[in-house]
Amino acid sequence: MSVMAATFVRNWRITLRAYPWTYFVGTLATGVLTIGVSMLAYRAIGGGRVGASFTAATGSADYLGYVTVGAAALTFTTRMVLWVAKAQITEYREGTLESQLLTPARRLPYLLGVTAQALSTTAVEITVLVAVATALGVRLTVADPLTLLAATVAATVAVVGMSVPLSALMLAAGEAHITQNTLFTAMALLCGFTFPTSYLPDAARWLGEALPVTWALRVLRAATLPGTDVDPWPAFAVCVVLGGAYLLLGLSILDPAERRALHRSARA
Amino acid sequence: MSHALRVVAAEALKQHRRLFGQPLVLFSMLLWPLLTLAATYYTVLPVMESAVAPQRWPVAGDPRRLLSFLAAGALAYTFFFSLVQSAWHFSFERVSGTLEALFLSPASRMALVIGNGAAALTQNAWLFGCFAVAAATAADVLHVAHPGMYAVAALALLVPAVAWGAFLNSMLIFSRDSAFLYTLLDDPLWFVAGVRLPLFALPVWVKAVGLAFPLTSSLVVLRGALLDRADLGDLAAPLGWLAALTVGLFAAASALLRLGEARAQRTGGLQVF
């Protein structure tokens, strides 16, 4: 617990001293422009209506709400992964990974501390995004606050679960740019952020089903899409189980990945 | 002139050696654009399936035409974005301390920035090839007035892109921060240039901003020539504007380089990063 709290405080200090504005503007722009394109297409081309396939797949005709919630969720996922998965490779690049390995602190509380701090800053960023969307004229509804809370928990579990193996991968490869962007573009396609996954070809859909984020999004849809009466709890359970499995896998390969990173810097 | 050409060739070869064969090129020039293209297609699909969409925009009614419209956008965008990436790599010269050495050499500055961008573009030639093959094998997608229009489309993409690259590279003489290029010119660029939407769907002010970027007009020519059977007469206006933009960008690049070099001589800032 003390490791988690210390990491939380340290990362807040870093954030306050040197806030990564470029990342913030970049991710916010991606979210806002995705909403913008959908909105313009919806009004100028669709005439304020959507095709039957969308209504059939989602149980709702609220296309703009669907895209906005998806864009916000994508921003959440991107930002959280950037924080949590890149925590250790940043330590490595800044030369503090060795110190981290020398302390008796365990890895999981450290990563949870990073997560807690990331949650607090990401919440602010999502608020900005949703405020911009509202200013643009998107109307969002929250059918069930409890389900929304469950969706946030599910999304956090999903993101942390995916970030830990990714962190190991980045450490082992000594590279973050390609890994992270490949994950982001793949997730944007496979998880159903801005369109229902039923649009995808079968093979791509099955790949998406294996990612916990896909399931977290289903919980989020149940909380935010008016007119859907889907039971969110089975999706919640699948998300937690999948996220936990990814987390365990990640923790088990973190050790060899750290060793590999150290050997590489020792050789250099 | 022959000296400048040799500088362009040498700089292009250097950039080519640095970049090509790196996994980054394969990912950022092929895999990411393809994944993003698919995601964009599915995101706008619900709107295009609406009952009124085909009347407002004929392309919307045919998934294959919609996909080729978006693919042409993705292709041109990737072309221009590769130059943003080349400018980003140019900023590494500063970090590795070779920017100063470049400016000590008698090489023409303009030739350097053109060579730098040209290398990024030749690496994209195969991308253009992949697009052409994919479009040609998908039946009934390409509508070209006559074979000469292929050359017009390719030139309308290449020449302004080189000018754009020279302009971006010249800006980095002043700035140590290349991250702003990535941020400012990644997402907003595709938005204002009509990469994912037809221009008529954009508000007037976005269209006005978009006109300032050569990508917008390049894309009008590319789509017109390859997908809509337009000939030279139909595309005269965008081609004329593209030519003006290209000249303007080259002039701006040349002025920026001169100003930047004078400033660097005064402040000694070229090796600072």
Automatic annotation (TrEMBL), chain A:
UniProt keyword annotation of Cytoplasm present: no
GO CC annotation terms, alphabetical: plasma membrane
Membrane topology classification: Multi-pass membrane protein
Subcellular localization, as worded in the UniProt entry: Cell membrane; Membrane
Keyword Protein transport in record: no
Domain ABC transmembrane type-2: 22-257
PROSITE patterns: ABC_TM2
Name of the molecule in the record: Transport permease protein
UniProtKB/TrEMBL annotation, chain B:
Any one GO CC term of the record: ATP-binding cassette (ABC) transporter complex
Record-annotated membrane-spanning stretches: 24-45, 65-90, 111-136, 148-168, 189-215, 235-257
InterPro entries given in the database record: ABC2_TM_bact-type (IPR047817), ABC_2_transport (IPR000412), Nod_factor_ABC_transporter (IPR051784)
Keywords recorded for this protein, A-Z: Membrane, Transmembrane, Transmembrane helix
One Gene Ontology term of the molecular function aspect: ABC-type transporter activity
Tagged with keyword Cytoplasm: no
Residue ranges of every copy of the ABC transmembrane type-2 domain listed in the record: 24-260
Protein name stated in the entry: ABC-2 type transport system permease protein
